[in-house]
Structure formats: structure tokens, C-alpha cells
Amino acid sequence: MASTDTERRDDFAQDLFTPLPDRYDRLAEVLSMGQNGRWRKEMVDHIVPERPGLILDVASGTAGVAIQLARRTSGQVVGIDLTERMLRQGAVNVAAAGEAGHVRLVVGKAQELPFPDATFDALTFTYLLRYVDDPAATLVELARVVKPGGMVSSLEFLAPPNPFWRFWWVGYTRILLPLGGWITGGKEWRRVGAFLGPNISGHYRRYPVAWTVGAWERAGLEDVGLREMSLGGGLVMWGRRRA
Questions:
Q1: Pick the CATH number of 2-159+208-241 from 3.40.718.10, 3.40.109.10, 3.40.50.150, 3.40.50.300
Q2: Tell me: the pLDDT tens digits for 59-85?
Q3: CA separation (Å) from 156 to 4, 148, 168, 185?
Q4: How many whole angstroms from its chain centre is CA 34?
Q5: Where are the alpha helices (H) located in the chain, listed in sequence order?
Q6: Does 9 score more than 60 pLDDT?
Q7: pLDDT tens digit sequence for 26-44
């Protein structure tokens, strides 16, 4: 049953994102109210001081984070994503950024990473845990491929905990987000816009932030920290692989 649920979620994610790669980066800014770039930078800020030699970027999509990692560190970056079309656009973006020699993109699942234990000096993942059947098991798998002492950093959407901001966030995600997606990206992005708000709310009802911190720790990560971004619209987390 778990395998079937996982396959269903993987199929849904591919169906949702396959039509979107040529517009993904522009529309990601619209869907995050212009905050996606700032959130990504905050996530990468926790990796750069570590000076990692080999970095894994999970749910790499069109390689925006992978490119930033390549530019801001001297390490080699491997980006992995489930959706092949997103990675093809990512390869175009990597070449245009002049980072083809520093970034390699591969197709694969976060739940079943095709790498040996303790391969990478650091790892990032972006907007991932809402699309997997078992977030706790996925975190264990992510931690598995990181060397002891290596840094892990992530970015996810968040439902604002403050009731005032949550009220406006609900209005934005249920009304303006689908409308904005449709205006700027057509029916495919209207579908993403309509999906996003309820998906985020449902995820945190099931897996609150406190649970997520505990799941990081149970996966073998320590010194786990977090920062709520943009009045609680985004969540950056980081932690170090326990020795």
C-alpha cells in the first residue's frame, strides 16, 4: 500500500509540473509574491560558509538553486528531480548561466536517492516534503547521503501562524493565487495556484513545524534551526548531519 501511495504521489507531482518548465522560474516569483529568490538565498546562506566540495540539490526543478550554489561556492553540484522536462529546462538554464562545468542534473526520486551513504558534503531541498507520502522516511533518506558534519538546508512554503496574517494568506492563496496563475501562465498555472494553498494548509495540519523539527532530529540531524520568512509565508530550516 505504501508503495502504491508513493507512486500515486510521484505521478501527481509529474503531472502537475511537467507542463510548466519554460515558465517555472518567472511564475514561482508570482506565486510567492516575489519572495522566492530571497527565500532561496536564505537557504543557500547556510551552505556557503561550509565550503562544501560536493553538494546535492534535491527537487532541483529548473536548477535555480543549483546554479546559485555553483556560483556561491567552489563545489560541484548535483541536482536531482523527478520531472525530466523540468531538468531539461534546468540544463538550458545551467548552460546560459555558464555553470555547465559545475552542475550535473539527474532524474531520480528523493525517497530513493541513487547515491551511496555519506556521499555529499552538503544538501539542499526545496518545496519537497508536501509531495512525498512519508516525510519522515524521506528525511532519513536525505540524511543518509550526507557526510557526518555536513550541512542540510531546506525551503518550504508555510501557512502563517499569526491569525491576522493567516487570514490574508488564505484569501491570497484561495482567490488571488489561482487568478494570478491563470493570467500569467494559463490553465496549467491556474491549476497549480488552486492546488497550492489547500495543499500547504493540509500539510501543516498533519505535520506541524514542531513535528518537522523532530523529524529532522530523528533522521540524524542536529543543531536544527529554522526561520519563518515573509510574515510566515516561507520556512527555511537547517541542520548538521550527526557524527
A1: 3.40.50.150
A2: 999 999 999 999 999 999 999 999 898
A3: 25, 24, 19, 22
A4: 16
A5: 2-17, 24-31, 36-45, 64-72, 84-96, 135-144, 163-171, 177-206, 209-218
A6: no
A7: 556 656 666 788 999 999 9
